[in-house]
Design brief:
alpha/beta; TIM Barrel; two-stranded antiparallel sheet; 15 helices; 12 strands; globular
Length: 382
């Protein structure tokens, strides 16, 4: 199997599984506890169907939309994801270049393995930085200031990770950053010599945005859950979020909002958007899926907030269902990470092309000339 054989999410996942050592593959693939929410995120799209209109003279549909004040060419972008250097030696740079090529957002994680400045010099497309509130206020401020000086136009604050979810696959496979050699992991690394060669012969692993501040997770092997519990502030509050909004002073989103009450409060503190997300089923297992919450939150906030649906996106039809129920756009993480592991920048470009083609084709079949024509009339619940 090679990249040309990858037509959908499952194909990219299979190739990534072939290419990546088991601890790294399962870090992408897994969720928390029984992984109930992880599964539900995608299954929830099956609860409703699309209702097409015929003879609509669609022609070439317009897939563009505006998010965070910036026009993007398709209503799907790359979610912020950590440690991309582990999935391919080009890591975040590959993802940022691919997103730029397709005219959509690249989102950078605090725990990226390229720095804010490196990415600013690598790609000129739309970029968003994803911030965590650290116990050390100085580090949080430093990240915001560097984003401003590097030309990032939007920022999101992740609010659902004040403590790490119980990701049992990480325990089982001994996943750490950087990778730690155990008997089990050595066997998996040895079975993937190409990955091991590229890992050892390219730039050293580091959490590039925080390595100047703390060596944990860069030169000291740490479990991700252990790092989160040590470094992030578990007492983060609405006051902290409001502080970030004011210090940033630009388009701002809260990532991890799931309740109507929190969506309304996001408006009150000056957020311009929310990422409706349960962290890909990696935090609170048993929580609602973003797609199930979307209609409730849209009814509550109307057009006062942009709503980005994040979680469970596998197909172009998933994107169209979300937009029909009021989302401004969607983001996905696992899909493009598997593509990155499957083939680097070419892999990310391939999955973005597959998703763009699906969205375009499905809009024509649905009878919609533009994203603006997607609304509740296109949806029927079973």
């Amino acid at each position: 199997m090679n990249l040309n054989d990858c037509y959908n999410y499952d194909d990219f996942r299979k190739l990534a599984k072939k290419n990546l050592p088991a601890p790294i593959f399962h870090y992408i693939d897994g969720g928390s506890d029984d992984e109930t929410t992880l599964k539900r995120n995608t299954e929830s799209f099956l609860k409703c169907d699309l209702v097409p209109n015929i003879l609509a003279s669609v022609g070439e549909p317009d897939l563009s939309t505006t998010v965070f004040g910036q026009k993007i060419d398709m209503p799907l972008f790359l979610a912020p994801t950590a440690m991309q250097r582990l999935y391919h030696h080009d890591g975040d740079k590959a993802s940022a270049r691919a997103a730029e090529k397709f005219g959509t957002f690249y989102s950078m994680s605090t725990m990226a393995t390229s720095s804010i400045e490196e990415i600013a010099n690598t790609a000129g497309g739309p970029k968003m930085f994803q911030l965590y509130i650290h116990k050390d206020q100085g580090l949080t401020d430093n990240l915001i200031d560097r984003c401003k000086s590097s030309g990032f136009k939007s920022l999101c604050l992740t609010v659902d990770t004040v403590v790490a979810g119980n990701r049992e696959r990480d325990h089982r496979w001994g996943f750490t950053t950087p990778p730690k050699l155990t008997l089990k992991s050595i066997m998996s690394f040895a079975a993937h010599p190409k990955w091991a060669f590229n890992y050892l012969t390219h730039k050293k692993f580091e959490l590039a945005n925080v390595s100047h501040w703390t060596k944990k997770g860069s030169s000291i092997a740490k479990g991700v859950m252990e790092y989160i519990n040590e470094q992030y502030d578990p007492a983060m509050s609405w006051k902290d979020a409001e502080y970030v909004v004011k210090k940033w002073g630009g388009p701002f989103a809260l990532k991890g909002v799931m309740s109507v009450e929190d969506a309304k409060r996001a408006i009150d503190i000056g957020a311009s958007a929310i990422l409706l997300s349960n962290h890909g089923g990696r935090q609170l297992d048993g929580s609602r899926s973003p797609f199930d919450q979307l209609p409730l939150i849209k009814d509550a906030v109307g057009d006062k907030l942009e709503i980005i649906l994040d979680g469970g996106i596998r197909r172009g039809t998933h994107v169209l269902k979300a937009l029909s129920l009021g989302a401004t756009a969607c983001s996905f993480g696992k899909g493009f990470l598997f593509a990155l592991g499957a083939g680097g920048q070419a892999g990310v470009e391939q999955i973005l092309k597959r998703m763009r083609d699906e969205i375009r084709r499905d809009m024509i079949l649905l009878g919609c000339k533009s994203i603006k024509e997607l609304n509740k009339t296109k949806i029927a619940y079973r």
